[in-house]
Design a protein that fits this description.
Layout (H helix, E strand, L loop, with lengths): L13 E7 L3 H12 L7 E7 L5 H8 L7 E5 L5 H11 L4 E6 L3 E2 L3 H8 L7 E10 L3 E3 L6 H4 L10 E3 H7 L12 H11 L4 E13 L7 E3 H14 L6 H22 L6 E3 L2
Parallel strand pairs: 1-2, 1-4, 2-3, 6-9
Antiparallel strand pairs: 4-8, 5-9, 6-7, 6-8, 10-11
Helix pairs in contact: 1-2, 8-9
């Protein structure tokens, strides 16, 4: 159950970090969703990771609304993991929430996640996903389960976390960039260090699904590589039984989807 919103008690300083690589055509929507939050964020940091489109023009226009906008420009691009790390490093908030440039926050997303973090025993909070673009549906936030997180990632990249998590883990690992699961290792590492998560029922990340697919739709072989790398990096926390459980589960899902479509099974798997 999501905690009630209390507008009378001040929140800690909150930073939003946005990663953008050639997504200028979507960035305006992402920034507008941040500006429209029921709880005004204290800081917006955008990492322009080697964009060659109109990203710079979009940011210049947004400065009319947020003169305090922090922009990190990098050439050449360094990838999603370093974009996240550089953005968080430049931010100053006690609470941090990331947003990819092609996604959006629902209007009270930041406030609902921040409310969950009023509990001192909660270290990161995550909402569900409201998918738009190619297809429209919702994935509700799954309850926090430490063991289940070792099997597969159910925490989206736009979860809100306490700054100590970033400082203790060192942020996203660039060696996951080619797989697209750098945020999963971040949450696993955080939990390994004692972090506790909280699902927020009424907080929705508006996640854009592209017709050509996304980094979250990957081949099972690549997903298996991610599981094995996670096991190697965190052997005290991720066990081979977790890897085996995922293999059985993903195989079953693959066959079920193929039967539903009436076509042969493919080698792709959706990863949160």
């Amino acid at each position: 159950m999501a905690p009630p919103l209390d507008h009378t008690v001040p929140y800690p300083r909150i930073s939003v970090v946005i990663r953008c690589h050639n997504y200028g055509r979507f960035l305006g929507e992402a920034l507008a969703s941040v500006q429209a939050q029921t709880l005004r964020v204290d800081e917006v940091v955008v990492v322009n990771d080697g964009s060659t489109d109109d990203t710079g023009d979009v940011l210049d226009a947004f400065r009319q609304q947020r003169p305090d906008l922090v922009v990190v420009v990098r050439h050449p691009a360094r990838g999603p993991a370093m974009s996240f790390n550089d953005g968080v490093t430049r931010s100053t908030g006690d609470l941090v929430v990331a947003l990819d440039a092609d996604d959006r926050f629902s209007p009270d997303y930041v406030e609902r996640l921040a409310a969950a973090l009023r509990d001192p025993d909660v270290h990161f909070a995550y909402g569900g996903e409201s998918v738009f673009g190619t297809g429209q549906f919702r994935h509700s936030a799954r309850p926090f389960d430490r063991d289940e997180l070792m099997v597969e990632n159910y925490v989206n990249v736009s979860s809100m976390f306490r700054r100590w998590i970033f400082e203790a883990t060192g942020g996203f690992r660039p060696d996951f960039d080619g797989i697209g699961l750098e945020d999963w290792e971040f949450w696993v590492h955080a939990v390994e260090l004692g972090a506790v998560g909280c699902a927020v029922e009424d907080g929705w990340l508006e996640y854009r699904r592209h017709a050509e697919g996304s980094r979250n739709t990957i081949r099972r072989r690549r997903a298996l590589r991610a599981h094995l790398l996670l096991w190697r990096l965190h052997p005290r926390t991720v066990r081979i039984r977790h890897v085996m459980r995922w293999m059985v589960r993903s195989s079953y899902r693959n066959v079920r989807q193929a039967v539903r479509r009436g076509s042969p099974a493919t080698d792709s798997v959706g990863v949160a």
